[in-house]
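Standup notes
- DV: blocked on the single-chain target, sequence here:
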Amino acid sequence: MSLSDEERRIMVQLEMERAKKTFNEVDILKAAELWNGVSNRLYYAVYHAVSALLIHDGHQVNTHHGSHAMFGQQYVKTGILPADYGRLYNQLQTMREQSDYNCAFDADPDELKNRIEPARQMIETIENMVSD
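- DV (later): unblocked, structure below
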């Protein structure tokens, strides 16, 4: 399905709004020391920002795996965005999957605390890229 320019603009805007709202939930969960929730929300905040970027540039993906692959191919391997963003995105997905699906796993607060600011920066960078 191909989007008109106006539909694409609206979808990008909605994805970025979702990214920012989801990122704001991180602070609430962090204050409550709900680290598995922090892991989930941090990943999804970045996921929605990446989705906005992919939509903005006309890339269509249907899965989380496809989003990671396309992001790596189109933005990291080409040097448009730093490799650190690709690693962060992958690390957040792994942490989110472990905390969501492995009942014996508890997210590490220190690992997550160290990823909050880089995730915020990544979301801001993407927001700047899609704001035209």
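- Follow-up: Residues 5-31 form the longest helix (27 residues).
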